[in-house]
Write a structure and sequence with these properties.
Length: about 475
């Protein structure tokens, strides 16, 4: 039975009918649809609309659908973070060519299983509030999974930072050698980016955790349903405040998709840098064979496929966020069928990142750094020039003049193809009388690293502190994920 055929005299055009369905993609929301339906059924019973027997029979029916579909439980514990088994993966999943969407599917299945009582489940509710609820539950569960993966990735980066100990590498600005840094400091830069991403997702989760059930089609439920009870049953903090907003709001999906865009941008920058550093020209790292492929033509090749795909897939994640923003931007309140179009881009971004993050963590664990080559690169190319100018500043030379004097010294070195340390003291003193024998110490890599002795700087002691601070933040992210599981 259709959900709305009463007022129609003509059947739908069959092509239109097929085309407007969403069951092909919203079937993955089945687990949430069943959970929300269970909460609604209980509220109906409490409101006196269902008898105790009817409630039991509806709940059993929902459970049977869940089992047939391979969805672990129809009513997950609050904030369940169990690995989602997609209905597609379950061989027993009942196909239904006529189901318009996941809501229709459940209604049909329920009626087939328990008879007419099944049609009582929809009392006082609308698909508009259902889809809004299902999507919130989906985004919430996905955020929990992503936070777990981000925590694992940051953990690997922190491990690699610790293993790098005091080894150095060049840091670049404008992709030109700038100053030496500890490799650990460089790796921790990525931890910062990914922890910000985790923070954005956690923030999105906090804001989305309100329950639309009881909002009806637009004006609120037509039966006295206990909204607080339904919210609590589904692990939401409270019911949403306004039925018009609740049925049309997809901000949580937009926020989520945009948070994922930024995460994808970070992953893409990471991938780009690793690709560069793996090239012969840099030679800073060896691509892990387990994550690389060869060329069908050139026998010598080992290509950074994982990195290239990470960089490439960021495009579709950004595109999905844009698609969602554009789908939403012209919509009058409240529900419009356009909103159905927000699902596929949302699912695609979620799936893409859920698959990608563990692979990135695996790559990061496996990659081998050429520490000597990085260290060597950190000691050439005048990356001690600012430290050299600082030496003069500390001896009272105004910084603009110090900069200019060291610039002159660099120019002399460039002509002679040598480094600052190779210039004789007498020659330096002709540039500035402030130069002295101890100047040569300040040029050494360890001295250059050590002067960046501020919180967040690359002095080794500061970096060691930063590693343990990062570990604490990763741990509290893990605890947050645990609290939701
Ligand atoms: N499949 C629909 C969607 O995803 C469910 C809501 C349908 N509501 C309606 N009034 N037609 O948006």
């Amino acid at each position: 039975m259709k959900m709305w055929s009463g007022r129609f005299r003509q059947p739908l055009d069959p092509d239109f009918e097929r085309w407007q369905r969403s069951f092909d993609f919203d079937r993955r929301l089945l687990r949430y649809e069943l959970a929300a339906s269970g909460a609604h059924a209980r509220a109906l019973k409490n409101a006196g609309v269902l008898s105790a027997d009817e409630l039991i029979s509806i709940l059993q029916g929902l459970e049977q659908i869940a089992q047939a579909a391979g969805v672990a439980r129809a009513l997950p514990p609050a904030n369940s973070n169990h690995e989602q088994r997609t209905p597609e993966a379950a061989p027993a999943f009942p196909e239904d060519a006529d189901a318009e969407d996941v809501h229709h599917f459940v209604e049909k299945q329920l009626a087939a299983l328990i008879g007419e009582t099944g049609y009582k489940l929809h009392s006082g509710r609308s698909r508009n509030e259902q889809i809004a609820t299902d999507l919130r539950l989906f985004v919430r569960a996905t955020i929990d999974q992503l936070l777990q993966s981000l925590g694992a990735l940051c953990g690997v980066l922190a491990d690699r930072a610790e293993q790098a100990a005091d080894s150095a590498m060049p840091a670049y600005t404008h992709l030109q050698r700038a100053e030496p840094v500890l490799s650990a400091h460089w790796l921790l830069a990525y931890v910062e980016m990914f922890l910000r991403d985790a923070g954005r997702l956690a923030d999105c989760r906090r804001r989305l955790n309100l329950c639309p059930l009881g909002s009806g089609a637009v004006a609120g439920a037509t039966l006295p349903l206990d909204r607080g009870f339904m919210a609590q049953t589904l692990g939401f903090d409270a019911p949403t405040a306004n039925s018009i907003d609740a049925t049309s709001d997809r901000d949580f999906a937009l926020e989520f998709a945009n948070a994922l865009s930024l995460l994808a941008v970070h992953l893409s920058r990471w991938a780009e840098e690793m690709i560069l550093f793996s090239s012969e020209e840099y030679g800073f790292l060896v691509l892990p064979e387990a994550y690389s492929t060869g060329s069908s033509a050139m026998p010598q090749k080992k290509n950074p496929d994982l990195l290239e795909l990470v960089r490439g897939k960021s495009g579709r994640i950004l595109g999905n966020a844009t698609a969602l923003m554009i789908a939403a931007k012209g919509l009058p309140l409240a529900y419009n069928k356009d909103l159905q179009e927000t699902q596929e881009p949302l699912f695609d971004s979620a799936d893409t990142l859920l698959q990608m993050l563990p692979l990135v963590a695996g790559w990061m664990k496996a990659v081998e750094f050429h520490r000597e080559r990085m260290q060597q690169a950190a000691q050439t190319g005048f990356m001690n020039a600012w430290a050299a100018a600082t030496y003069l500043v500390q001896r009272g030379v105004p910084s603009r003049l110090a900069h200019e004097r060291i610039g002159k010294a660099v120019q002399i070195c460039l002509e002679r193809n040598c480094e600052l340390k190779d210039l004789p003291l007498a020659e330096l003193q002709s540039l500035s009388p402030a130069f002295d024998q101890d100047f040569y110490q300040c040029l050494q890599l360890s001295a250059v690293l050590a002067i960046h002795d501020v919180p967040g700087g690359t002095a080794p002691a500061r970096v060691r502190q930063a590693i343990s601070a990062a570990r604490k933040r990763i741990e509290s992210l893990r605890e947050e994920v645990h609290a939701h599981a």
